[in-house]
Structures are given as structure tokens and as C-alpha cells.
């Protein structure tokens, strides 16, 4: 059975109004990663980190999936083989577009995590230092997102999918963040055809057998049509 693995990054959500993190105009142009997206930054100033993720959470609630998200959902529904969708994004736009299954390797903006008991629940619009866990009441709630220096979620499942895939596509990724930037090499070793779909070449573009450049809302639906033979 043919098996497709798709990795998506911030570029697929940019046209929905969710800003990218890297590149011109990205969030990390004006904000320091070390302050907002590391365990050390959270330890230094948890209020500032909560404020940032409250803002991102509220922003994500105002945007809608675009044609690229919808095309991937269509591929998952209509393809005759297995389609595994992995996203680096913490928004919920793939689910909003109708994707039946999404692996969130970097967590979800809509989630909260208790660092005392590992309980997870739907985050409120506003979180702050000392927010209590609904399971154990410890004041240890944080955003359920993976920060730099932390292990991404679901790596065993992802590794297994890459080892079996026949087609690997990276969509809207910078190729600068590992381990995701190395997925193309894992897929290549498994014998898969590899394709990068991006607005511009990523840092690992030379690792791909095929490239398609342009706006995600145009390139992704066209690629999905090709895969489905339409």
C-alpha cells in the first residue's frame, strides 16, 4: 500500500493570517526565541511567556483554514493509501479544514499542560502564572507547546511512519528546526520520493528530489490534484 507522509510548517498557515516565525517579518524578527520559547525563558518571566501565548491563542481563534489546509484534508479523505499528516504548527487549522487525523509534534495552542502531574486539558483564552491544574490543583499550568530544548511529541509514531512511506512532502517549512528538518533524509533512506512545497527554498532544499515553489493556496491544491490523478 502506498503511504504518504506530509510535514507542514508555519508557511501553510501564513495566508490564513497566522504569522510565520522565521524569515522577513517573522515573529522571531522582533522577539527573542530565548525569552518566549524556551524553558529557561519561562522560568525567568512566566508572565511574559503566558502573555505571548495568550495573544497567539486569541489570534488563532480569529482565523480560518485556507485552500492549502482544505486540499490536504481532501487528500486524507480521498487517497486510496495511507496519509499521515504531521504538523509543526500549534494552530488548529488542519482540524478546522476537516483533516481527520493530525500529529501535533510541537503541541497545540489550544492546550494546557500541568508540569506537576502531566495532565492535559483545553486551555482557557487567558492563562497566567499560578494557573491551577484541574486534575491535581497544582499551580503549575503552562501552554502545551514544545519549546526549544524540549523533545517533540509523538516521535516514535513519526519515525515509524517515515520508515514506511513511499512519498514524503514538506509544505511551508523553513528546514531550520530539527528533528523535523531531518525527516526528508529519513524518508529518502526508506526509498520514498520527496517533494518540497514552499514559498521559497528551505535550508534543506537540496535534500529533496522535487520542488514546487509558490503560494501555498495555489501550489498545494495543484499537488494534491496530481497525487489524486485529477
Explain what this protein looks like in three dimensions.
The structure is a single chain. By secondary structure, the chain is of the alpha/beta class. Strands 3-2-1-7-8-9 form a 6-stranded parallel β-sheet, with helices on both faces. Strands 5-4-6 form a 3-stranded antiparallel β-sheet, with helices on one face. α5 (about 65-80) packs parallel to α9. The chain has helices at about 25-30, 35, 40-45, 45-60, 65-80, 95, 155-165, 185-190, 215-230; strands at about 5-10, 80-85, 105, 105-115, 120, 140-145, 165-170, 195-200, 210-215. The protein has 2 domains: about 1-15 and about 65-105 and about 150-230, 3-Layer(aba) Sandwich (Rossmann fold), CATH 3.40.50; about 20-60 and about 105-145, SIR2/SIRT2 'Small Domain' (2-Layer Sandwich), CATH 3.30.1600.10.
Amino acid at each position: 500500500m502506498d503511504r504518504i507522509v506530509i510535514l507542514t510548517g508555519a508557511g501553510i498557515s501564513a495566508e490564513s493570517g497566522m504569522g510565520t516565525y522565521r524569515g522577513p517579518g517573522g515573529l522571531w524578527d522582533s522577539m527573542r526565541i530565548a525569552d518566549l520559547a524556551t524553558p529557561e525563558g519561562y522560568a525567568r518571566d512566566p508572565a511574559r511567556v503566558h502573555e505571548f501565548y495568550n495573544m497567539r491563542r486569541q489570534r488563532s481563534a480569529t482565523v480560518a483554514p485556507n485552500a492549502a489546509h482544505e486540499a490536504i484534508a481532501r487528500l486524507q479523505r480521498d487517497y486510496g493509501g495511507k496519509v499521515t499528516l504531521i504538523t509543526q504548527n500549534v494552530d488548529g487549522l488542519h482540524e478546522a479544514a476537516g483533516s481527520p487525523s493530525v500529529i501535533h509534534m510541537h503541541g497545540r495552542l489550544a492546550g494546557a499542560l500541568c508540569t506537576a502531574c502531566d495532565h492535559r486539558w483545553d486551555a482557557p483564552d487567558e492563562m497566567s502564572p499560578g494557573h491551577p491544574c484541574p486534575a491535581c490543583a497544582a499551580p503549575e499550568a503552562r501552554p502545551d507547546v514544545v519549546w526549544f530544548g524540549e523533545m517533540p511529541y509523538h516521535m516514535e509514531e513519526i519515525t515509524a511512519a517515515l520508515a514506511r512511506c513511499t512519498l514524503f512532502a514538506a509544505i511551508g517549512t523553513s528546514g531550520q528546526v530539527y528533528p523535523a528538518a531531518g525527516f526528508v533524509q529519513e524518508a529518502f533512506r526508506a526509498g520514498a520520493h520527496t517533494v518540497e512545497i514552499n514559498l521559497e527554498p528551505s535550508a534543506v532544499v537540496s535534500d529533496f528530489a522535487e520542488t514546487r515553489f509558490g503560494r501555498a493556496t495555489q501550489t498545494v491544491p495543484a499537488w494534491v490534484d496530481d497525487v489524486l490523478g485529477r
